[in-house]
Structure formats: structure tokens, C-alpha cells
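Q: Start with the shorter request: fold the first protein.
A: Done. Sequence, then structure:
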Amino acid sequence: MAPGDPRSRSSGVRRAEPVSAHLPVVLGAAPQLSIAMPASEALLEPTYAYLSAYCFAVFGPSVAQRLNVAVYELFANALRHGTGKKDVRVELRRFGSGVMLLVTNHASPAQIEALCKHVDRVQCSPKAAFHREMSRFETTTEPAPMLGIVRVAHEAGLALHVRVEEDWVEVSTLCD
């Protein structure tokens, strides 16, 4: 290419490090959408608005409605409970008629342990977990209710999977 050739111009967009650099890629499918961003709660609402619109445009309402609950809650949890040392990554991968959501972030061992215990409790009985967390709103007990994971399992009816490698944690769900 000659200097000045439009093909030699750079957009300035850097290629993000793939999540597989930290965790093995789930089921080997390439991401349909992958976003990495600093762990800043200020990014929750604008990023969610984009992801929600994307889900409705690409996957249709029956999948998008359930997927949007998971996108919001898992992304919010990653932003709020991660250490903030590394980017938070959100990926969507298509599998036949389903879509896998993966949210990856950096977390402390204590945060990872609490997450794994909470997911296990919720997976055993989403309905019981929902009632338990809702009852915590009526009392002044600590810690505060943890409804995000519960909403994904109970309201959206999605199973959650947690994978950990060192201080990286990936929470995923498959929606179809």
C-alpha cells in the first residue's frame, strides 16, 4: 500500500484482549458482541441501554426480554463488586436459537467465594431465594438484599454458571 492509501489508515480503535486470555472460551463459539470497559458504575446505564437495544434488534423479543434481565443484573454486579483493577467484559454468543451471555471481571477471593455461595443457594431454589431476599427488604438486617442474581434465576428463569481462574470470575447464562 502506498502512503495515503485509505486501507492503511487506522480507526484508532484498539482491539480488546479476548476473554480467552483470562478464561477458557465457553463452548468455543466466537463472540457476536464483545465489550470491555473500565469498572465504572457511571457506565452501567448507557451500556445497558445499548445492549438492550442490540438484544431486541438481533434476538427478538422472546429472548431479549429474559436476556435483558441477565445483562443488567450481571453487568451491575460486575461493576459494583469487582475490584476495579481490570476491565469488565460483556459478551454475547449465539448458539442455535439461544444466546449465551458472559460477564467477566476481576474480583477478590472473598468476593468470588460470596458470589459462588450465593449462586449455589439461588440455583437450588430460585423461588425460595426470591422470597428470602424480598423478606430482607422488610427488615433492617444486614447485609442488604442481593436481588440481582435472584432476578436472573427467578424472574428470567435462567441458570447461572460461575467459572473462576485466579482472580478472574466469569458468570454466564444461556437464554433460548
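Q: Next, the second protein, separately.
A: Sequence, then structure:
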Amino acid sequence: MPYLLLKDLPRYECLLEAAKEFPDLDPSAAEAFLHLLHTGDEVFGVTDQNLGEHDISQGRFGVLMLLWRGAQPRETRLLCAEECLPGPRTPAELAEAAGVTRATMTGLVDTLERDGFVKRQPDPEDRRQMSVRLTARGEKFLQAFLPGHFKAIAALMSPLSEAERKTLVRLLGKIQERAAVLHHRAKGAALAPTG
């Protein structure tokens, strides 16, 4: 489901008019924000369609990618930060890495296990916990799916030069940092006792 339920974005002139009624409305901020949401919806739609054609959801694909990158030899890991854990991952670690609840992760792992893409097994370091591993079928799916997926990403980003992509990443990083601060403040305010 899209985040922005507008087919056509308002023109800048309309935002200027709205700012007369709502003085806190910054027309250029609103315009940039609406374009950011609209672009996110369009990009998400492209990837969602591609995943749907392969009978997999965004969430399940995300879990497979977390498991796949953790299983790669250190020198060949793709899309991986320094803190990537090698080998199997617990459902709790997967939930944390994906930014979802443990219950959501349990549902994702259940369906992936049902379809033969992952397997739960006792954790080799702590037998009280379960680890989740990619199966041969899960690995085979990713090996077949990823080349086309990466090609689609490259095609989607092809209108931008390398320098423009770096600028976009830098600018989006600034927005992400600010969103994290605002989210943290709002979360703190919601937890604060009322007098």
C-alpha cells in the first residue's frame, strides 16, 4: 500500500496558496517531502512487482537477504556493514536487523520454512536458542533471483550519474538522521508520564 495516497502531486503554486492559510507550511519543504514519498512509493512498486512475479514478499525477501549476506565468506559479502554476523542468525537478531517485532519475524520465518527456503535448528553456541539458516533451496532461489533484481535496481537508478547518486545518498542520509531524531523525541514524549 502506498504511503502517499495522491496520484498527482500539488503544484508549488498551490502549496504557496495553502501557506497563506497555514503559516507553518513551508512550501519548498512540503514539495520536497511529497516528491520523496511519491518516489518511494514508485520505487517500492517496481520492486514489489518484481518480487511478486517470483512469489515472494518484501519481508520474506529481506529475511533471505539478511541470512544470505551473513552466510557469505567475509571477503565476498555484499551489502554488508562491519557488524554483520557470520553464519546462522537467531530470530531475535533477524528481527532487530530488519527493524520488525519478534512476532513479525516469527511469521516471516514460519512461511519461509514452510516453503523450504530456511531451516530452524538449535544454535551451535547456545542450544536453548534456535538459529535460522538458508537451505539449499533458499540459496538457489537467491542465486536465480538476484541477478535480475540487481539489474532492475541499476535500470531504476540509471537516470542519475555516479556523482548524482552519491549526492542523493548524502541528502537522504541527512533526512534519515533528522527523522531518527524526531522519531526518538516523539517516542520519548509518548512515554513521558502525564501530570
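Q: Describe the second briefly.
A: Residues 74-78 have pLDDT under 50 and may be disordered. Residues 8 and 38 are 9 Å apart (CA to CA).
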